[in-house]
Structure formats: C-alpha cells, structure tokens
Amino acid sequence: MTDHSAARDAVTRLTRWADDFPQPGVRFADLTPVFSDADGFRVVVDALAACAPATEVIAAVDARGFLLGGGVARELGSGVVAVRKSGKLPPPVLSQSYTLEYGTATLEIPAGSIGLDGRSVLVVDDVLATGGTLDATARLVESAGARVIGIAVVLEIAALGGRERLGKYPLTSLVTV
To answer: Which cysteine residues pair off into disulfide bonds?
Structure first.
C-alpha cells in the first residue's frame, strides 16, 4: 500500500470546515486551502495518482474534481474528461441523475466524441459524502463504455455512508473523518 502520510498531513492541516453550508445541517469540507498551497496540492495529486498508475483516463467531477483530475492526469500521462453539471455542455450528451446529501442533480459528458469505449477510468473528486455524485459519475462513464478501475478522493466523511454505496469499486480516500 502506498504511503499517503504527506497528503494526509496537508489535508488535515489545511482543510477549512464550514457548518450549515450550503444549507442547515450540512458540514462542508472546503479543500480550497489545500489546493492553494503548492506543497499541499502537489502531495495530494501525487497520492491520488498512485491509486491507479495504469489508468488511461481520469474522470474529473465538477467542479473541484477538475483541479485534481487535471493534475492527476498530467502526473500519469493520461487523458482527462470533465464530468459536468447539467446544462454546461452542448448536445448530444450522456447524463446521469442522482440524489446527494442536500438535493438532486444531474451529471453529463459528451456523447460519443470522447472515446471512452473499453478504456480504463479512474474517477477523481475532492470529497466522498453520501456517494451519490461518485456513483453517478461511475455509472455515467460506464454508460459510455469505459471500465471504472477505481475511485479516488481526498476526503471521506465516513458517517454519511458513501463507501458502502460505492462498494463495487475500489476506493481510496486519503483522509477519512
């Protein structure tokens, strides 16, 4: 198993917590301070890249996953696809709706033009909460013909049960709270 201690230290030290955001009862993990710290960002990207060194494509989840996904793809020499929130891409798109801890949403990727068929994909995002977003992302890229070889996140909020929802996928979280 890869040692992620430098990444864990950076995330633990730099994460900003916001209670009752974006709505009452939700505790939001803001990783922006981790990303804005050059060393913190570097060790986090390196740790996420170590999760699946042979992946062909990174599926980066809108929006903070974009920051991580681009870095991980660059580190691995792989491609990256931005998994967008609904309405951000021109048609045709593939879409997947899901429930998250404070509402519902839909994710989209371009239909047919990004060549995912048969390719290995690592899904990357910042936080695992209920698992709705990551499950929808995995199902979405699978609907495009990709093989999801793993999911990697910076921070997992264990009490929200996301890991159980993602049980069929190998999952790495750098920090679990």
So the answer is: none
